[in-house]
Design goal:
heterodimer, A: 11 strands, globular, B: 7-stranded mixed sheet
Chain lengths: 113, 116
């Protein structure tokens, strides 16, 4: 089955700097890669997703890139703000299932004012 | 409209008690997923429903875990004879599409279960 590795586990940046989180996956058949932001005491909230027919997707300060050959995808946050502080999870679709997601272990992002 | 809601938000159970966790998906969503999230970890899949049919329960950790969605809307996750290792946040997610389509999953706030 699918396996997703995520790093770093913690990331601290200064307000205004960029943050990059990287994930690798094992199943070359996976075709859907969402990123979720989870704040303390809340459920995961989708912030951006990408499908395997696209190499890059951008939404304001957030962008995701996908390298199918290398089987890795990355989240880029530019001009970070204190409210970006949260735990971020990458995920990949489990193609052997009914559509459930396999998640990475998460990255705790801290943005210092 | 409203997002996915779950109740209760917090549940404390004594070891050996039975618990029931409720999920109200987004209205009209065909697919419903349950995930378990241990402290400091990513969510892990438990079970999947398409309408009222439970098509995948491969992630349920033991036969003490049971889920249902009798009318294809609200779902209940039941854990019998709770054990300390069941302590976790239980997340429900729904998506508009049915099986075979990788569709956006919208998560509820979760139920934090603590077993003493």
């Amino acid at each position: 089955g699918e396996n997703v590795e995520q790093h770093p586990s913690t990331l601290s940046v200064q307000e205004g700097d960029s943050a990059v989180i990287k994930c690798t996956y094992s199943d070359s058949a996976s075709n859907y890669f969402p990123w979720y932001k989870q704040e303390l005491g809340k459920g995961p909230q989708l912030i951006i997703d990408i499908r395997s027919n696209v190499g890059e997707k951008k939404d304001q300060r957030i962008a995701v890139t996908l390298n199918k050959t290398a089987k890795h995808f990355s989240l880029h946050i530019t001009e970070t703000q204190p409210e970006d502080s949260a735990v971020y999870f990458c995920a990949a679709s489990d193609m052997g299932s009914q559509g459930n997601l396999i998640f990475g272990k998460g990255t705790k992002l801290s943005v210092k004012p | 409209g409203a997002g996915v809601s779950q109740s209760p938000r917090y549940k404390v159970a004594k070891r050996g008690q039975d618990v029931a966790l409720r999920c109200d998906p987004i209205s009209g969503h065909v697919s419903l997923f349950w995930y378990q999230q241990a402290l400091g970890q990513g969510p892990e899949f438990l079970t999947y429903f398409q309408n009222e049919a439970q098509l995948d329960k491969s992630g349920l950790p033991s036969d003490r875990f049971f889920a249902e969605r009798p009318e294809g809307s609200v779902s209940t996750l039941k854990i019998q004879r709770t054990q300390q290792e069941d302590s976790a946040v239980y997340l429900c997610a729904s998506s508009a599409a049915g099986t075979g389509v990788s569709d956006t999953q919208y998560f509820g706030p979760g139920t934090r279960l603590t077993v003493l």
